[in-house]
Design goal:
The protein is an alpha/beta fold. Helices cover about 35% and strands about 15% of the residues. The strands form 3 sheets. Strands 3-4-2-1-5-6 form a 6-stranded parallel sheet.
Length: about 400
Amino acid sequence: MVEKLSLQDIDVKNKRVLVRVDFNVPIDKKGTITDDTRIRASLPTIEYILNHEGICILMSHLGRPKGRSEEFSLAPCGKRLSELLRRPVQVAKDCIGQDVKKMVDALKPGDVLLLENVRFYEAEEKPELDNTFAKELSSFGDIFVNDAFGSAHRAHSSVATIAAHFPNFAVAGFLLQKEIQFLGDAFQNPKRPFFAIIGGAKISTKIGILESLVQKVDALFIGGAMAFTFFKASGISIGDSPFEESMIDSARTIINQAQSKGVSLYLPIDIVIADSFSNDAKYKVVQSSVGIPKGFQGMDVGKQTIEAWTDLLQNGKTIFWNGPLGVFEFANFANGTIQLAKALSALKDTATVIVGGGDSIAAIQGAKLSDNFAHLSTGGGASLEYIEKGTLPGIEVLTNK
């Protein structure tokens, strides 16, 4: 991929720097942010601009609002950012319009302004509806910085369309740079053996990455509900477990490609099964080879799987993990994911372990193991698409070095 200009390559002094951040954070009903990881991840870029006497104007989306809604206001993010920066952060009541323009015009070097949720406008997600939206956003800045890796796979107005209004001044922020560097190095020149662990619910959302990985890795470990489609494709009974009928042929193709390329493909050896989809369901463990009886569904990987996979993973030099191994939101069926997080954290001195995806990172953070990983990617979908395609819409549009 062509190298892109980054924040260090330009002079921000006395300039209005418009930064697309990813403040799409979980907020409870009381308006409290329950995980500020994404806000913290943007601090190096924001602090660099402020330390170099720039004016920092931030824009982000939050959730999936249908029009304007107090529930999806970025005000709590502004409050939290102000605490982290230890300086005032102004929060606009809109992201475009005359009132916002007045606020922008009054800003001085060292000031921070957070614009309101860009998804309050339909044109954010559908730039083709109204190209003036990106143009008006762009009018607030002299320089555009994309630091929202978690959104860089979306060709939205504030992520991609806007860059056209900044010829020679559309650059990568430090977080985006770090993601490109880690994911690029790991997947273009991995130290071997190179292993990938893919979990989560659906093959359909990850078929692209599975097809890409089977060409690159030495071993592929598949867990989560998507494993049941692979079991079904292999003629093993899965009881009432969820699977994707339309993806059975794709699963067979992956199995055959792995065999022909000499890639080891590992499915769970034993499965924790339950009589209903509930944390309180009655559960037991069965061997995968025996299959899951009717009236039961798979909820997690069993102890034997974790032990066997832990042994195998110790040989890895580069390891990528995306997606939980079980129904992680239920405490009784989160064990496989938590034990995998612990096993991978123990490899910090012998392997480069990269994690992409919310639930995998939540397991790591819940176990207070974040410091033991080479890189925790802030974008699950974005990291998968970047690995698969080697670029993203929000990166493609930035100014070439």
